[in-house]
Design brief:
Mean pLDDT: 78
Distance between the termini: 77 Å
Strand content: under 5%
Number of domains: 2
Radius of gyration: 30 Å
InterPro entries: Sec10-like, Sec10_HB
Helix content: 55-70%
Structural class: mainly alpha
Protein name: 3285_t:CDS:1
Shape: elongated
Number of helices: 18
Low-confidence stretches: 1-13, 40-63, 79-88
Number of strands: 0
Length: 416
């Protein structure tokens, strides 16, 4: 799995494949919950005559499944046929499915006692809730959280390298694969709760132990995903910074005299955007819109900081300034594809700052720095001044620029 390209992984995790698989799986899961206990138990034992190849198994499901109802064993076969089955090293849909099946059997046995009066009735109710709570505690604390902890540890141990540039961040891809699986597990629990537990508890009773534990279970999932997103974004930014550091050459922004200008992004810029773009697409099918927006906004803000630090490392000639602007245009185009209006102004301001490298006269450079409204409050005059100091001719224009910035002129004097 780790040797596959980012493109192959993204194709596996795209929205269409994921949605089709999830809808089919949950539909079959609902049908399984509605089956009679005896039929469900009997279907859990594989038949010795079941076909072994994925193609034969799919044909068998279509031809032999009565009334479109698919058993637990059939669901397991669907997982084997699906590429998602390969992703279950840390989290397992099969384990979740068996745990829900056993939990349903326990609910069925205890449910026979519903209706007893007084203390016995309360005891039965508590037992029913405890059975469901045990499922949530086991899944959340003993299965899902440890799986995410391992994934987070892998992400934290990531070191930027050339291999990750070529094949993608395996730890980040692994995390997004887990998000796919845990999203499906959460929906399975919700379906199970709606179909089975709502017969015994009021879903609107906020004092119910069952409902409280369900919210805690969902909180565990949310916190695990949030922690992974934070570390994943940082790993991605480390990789982007590594590409810029290793591939951006001084002559990109300070070409030799008489070098023909090529108004296209530099190699470092192109490869950095390709890396960010590929990994940004990975999350597109893994999360709800709110999580997606937060992820993209964090990518934009952190990448903005990376570029600020990166550009201050290079001496820039006037000709090289056109290369800087070309790169900044490419970065901005990528950011705009994320469709996050809150971060686009940061990169537009950065594009404006690039103009400071191609201004020819010292007086105009000083006036440029003083035009604070040009940068919409995102870059201060002090920030622009730091960038302008990296001009190749700074030693020659410094005195005149500072005169424009700090010197007093006749129009600055006011008679009181």
């Amino acid at each position: 799995m780790l040797d596959e390209s980012v493109e192959a992984r993204q194709a596996m995790l795209n929205n269409a494949n994921r949605e089709v698989y999830r809808r089919t799986y949950l539909s079959s899961f609902r049908k399984m919950l509605k089956r009679s206990p005896n039929r469900t138990r009997n279907s859990a034992t594989p038949s010795p005559t079941q076909p072994s190849s994925p193609v034969d198994r799919r044909a068998s499901l279509i031809g032999n499944s009565p009334d479109g109802i698919i058993s637990i064993t059939d669901l397991q076969m669907m997982m084997i046929d699906s590429k998602l089955y390969k992703l279950q090293q840390l989290l397992s849909l099969e384990t979740t499915l068996h745990m829900i099946h056993l939990n349903k059997e326990s609910l069925r046995r205890a449910g026979c006692l519903v209706g007893y009066p007084d203390k016995m009735g309360l005891k039965v109710q508590e037992t029913l809730e405890s059975i469901f709570i045990t499922l949530l505690e086991t899944l959340g604390t003993l299965h899902i959280k440890p799986g995410f902890d391992i994934a987070l540890r892998h992400i934290g141990e990531h070191k930027p390298d050339v291999e990750s540039t070529n094949t993608g961040l395996a730890s980040l891809v692994e995390f997004f694969e887990l998000v796919h699986i845990v999203d499906l597990i959460q929906q399975m629990i919700q379906v199970y709760y709606d179909e089975e537990m709502c017969r015994f508890v009021d879903k609107h009773d906020f004092l119910s132990r069952c409902n409280k534990e369900k919210k805690r279970f969902e909180k565990i999932l949310d916190e695990s995903v949030a922690a992974g997103l934070n570390k994943g974004i940082q790993a991605l930014m480390d990789q982007a910074e590594f590409i810029l550091m290793t591939e951006q050459q001084p002559e990109d922004f300070r070409p030799a005299n008489n070098t023909p200008l090529e108004l296209k992004p530099s190699k470092a810029c192109i490869h950095t955007v390709q890396c960010l773009e590929a990994h940004a697409k990975l999350v597109a099918g893994c999360a709800d819109q709110h999580t997606l927006d937060v992820f993209y906004q964090e990518i934009g803000l952190r990448f903005f900081s990376v570029l600020l630090k990166h550009l201050k490392k290079f001496v820039v000639s006037i000709d090289g300034g056109f290369q800087v602007i070309s790169d900044l245009n490419h970065y901005t185009s990528f950011i705009m594809t994320l469709q996050q209006s809150s971060i686009t102004p940061f990169f537009i301001a950065l594009k404006e700052m690039g103009s400071g490298y191609i201004i020819s006269t010292a007086k105009d450079v000083g006036l440029f720095i003083r035009e604070a409204e040009r940068f919409k409050g995102i870059l201060r005059a002090e920030d622009v001044y730091e960038f302008v100091q990296m001009r190749e001719d700074w030693a020659e224009i410094k005195k005149e620029v500072e005169k424009q910035l700090f010197g007093l002129k006749a129009e600055d004097c006011v008679v009181m």
